Amino acid sequence: MRYATITGWGKAIPPAILSNADLETIMETSDEWISTRTGIKERRIAEVETSDMAAMAGRQAIAAAGKSPEDVDLIVVATCSPDTLLPSAAAWAQTKLGATNAAAFDLNAACSGFLYSLIVATNMIKGGTHKCALVIGSEKLHSFVNFRDRTTAVLFGDGAGAVLLEAVDQDEPTGLLSSEMGLEVGTEELLWAPQSGTKTYTDEAIASERAIQMGGSEVFRRAVTMMAESSERVLAEAGWTSEDVDIMIPHQANVRIIDAATRRLGIDESKVFVNIASYGNTSGATIPIALTEALEEGRIEPGAKLVFAAFGAGLTWAAATFQWGDRVTPIDTYDVEFPASSLTGIDIIQANLEYFGRNDVAATSEAAE
Ligand SMILES: CC(C)(COP(=O)(O)OP(=O)(O)OC[C@H]1O[C@@H](n2cnc3c(N)ncnc32)[C@H](O)[C@@H]1OP(=O)(O)O)[C@@H](O)C(=O)NCCC(=O)NCCS
Question: Annotated catalytic residue: which of 146, 251, 254, 352?
């Protein structure tokens, strides 16, 4: 029987930090408010583009699997912040990787994008059309954040993570055992960036409409339900109980969402991987970054039973059970190196502050409510 299993993993974390204390200097907020309401202490701000981080994380995943870029026959980049709409971030990343034998495309399911991509790539491998797929989540979300809107600006960050998925033929099931992805109709405007595509809302689009806007408490409520219920269904389909789970790797949007969803699922918090304090919500990148760090920290044993769950703009959701293979250490290593720079997080977001300050200081999610 053909399965698709993860043989490599990697991450690219931009060096520039934007802490809660930094945010206190540019908006009315506090470390105390952000920490207790979200669990976030700091986030990373990228100077490089989404595809640069995608290529770095991807290159590390390829090395961890002991492969070379020419072995890859499919690249899927989960992103909602591509360098350009035409071509895709996957196209730029593919050139930077030198992955000359791959088909490549972006998949935008917002924060559920990595799980959507993992499911799609697994099915392409199982279907027999591809054998070696690089699945990447990469985001430069700060481009779509209005740092004059405290209701959204404190939540998001930049970064990338990746896995290499390879075909294996064996009797024993491995890789994704059960999965689902979905979208709740009629919820498009609960979490969106109105002026991020062809849709023109007003004759003279105001700057804040380029930025992410959100009905925070409504998204929160639905997120808990989506993550808990979809996880319950994939667990049941795999024939696992919550006690069978060795580690859960949820999308990192808010530690209170993770706590509420995992409590409902009955998964002990010691089995839930959480790194949101360091990176905030990096959308499509949260799960592959968390998975990579779980491996680096020795939290995943050979043969471990994993559960993934995510939700995001759409509103989309996805969940999956995953049977890990034997190897939990990289075959080879690749050191991710960002271009040398002395800029801090606050330095990098100056252009953003000027853009939103110049065009539309007052319009924020809060003002719109
Ligand atoms: C955004 C979120 C953290 C807000 O937390 P909350 O507990 O729901 O807070 P509320 O929106 O009810 O706001 C409470 C108060 O804090 C204020 N507030 C909002 N952002 C603030 C900030 N950064 N600093 C200080 N105060 C803030 C609000 O203005 C409000 O003030 P008021 O009571 O005087 O009106 C939370 O709703 C959330 O995480 N939602 C989900 C968002 C998400 O996950 N998005 C990505 C999906 S992939």
Answer: 251
Where does ligand 1 bind, in terms of residues with CB under 6 Å? 29, 33-34, 37-38, 111, 150-151, 154-155, 191, 214, 216-217, 219-220, 223, 253-254, 281, 312, 366
Q: What is the CATH number of domain 175-323?
A: 3.40.47.10
Cis peptide before 14 (omega within 30 of 0): no
Distance (Å, whole) CA 36 – CA 55: 34
DSSP letter, residue 211: S
DSSP 284: G
Report which protein residue has its CA nearest ligand 1's atom 28.
151
> Which is the catalytic residue, given 146, 254, 281, 352?
281
Distance (angstroms) between ligand 1 centre and the Cα of 107 equals: 28
Q: How do residues 141-188 score in pLDDT, each as one tens digit? A: 999 999 989 999 999 999 999 999 999 999 999 999 999 999 999 999
Residue 257: strand, helix, or coil? helix
Give 242 Cα–ligand 1 centroid separation in angstroms: 30
Pocket test for ligand 1, best of 32, 111, 151 (most atoms within 8 A of CB): 151
Among 118, 51, 139, smallest CA distance to 91 is for 51
* Number of residues that make up the chain: 369
Q: Are 118 and 165 in contact (CB under 8 A)?
A: yes
Cα–Cα–Cα angle for 362, 366, 368, rounded to 5 degrees: 75
Domains 2-173 and 175-323 share a fold: yes
Name the residue at shortest CA distance from atom 45 of ligand 1. Answer: 253
Read off the pLDDT of residues 241-273 as tens digits, 9 standing for 90 and up.
999 999 999 999 999 999 999 999 999 999 999
Angle, helix 286-296 to helix 113-126, in steps of 10 degrees: 80
Helices 31-38 and 255-265, interaxial angle, to 10°?
A: 20
Q: What is the architecture, at CATH level 2, of domain 2-173?
A: 3-Layer(aba) Sandwich (3.40)
Task: Indicate if 20 belongs to the active site.
Answer: no
List the domain boundaries for the chain. 2-173, 175-323
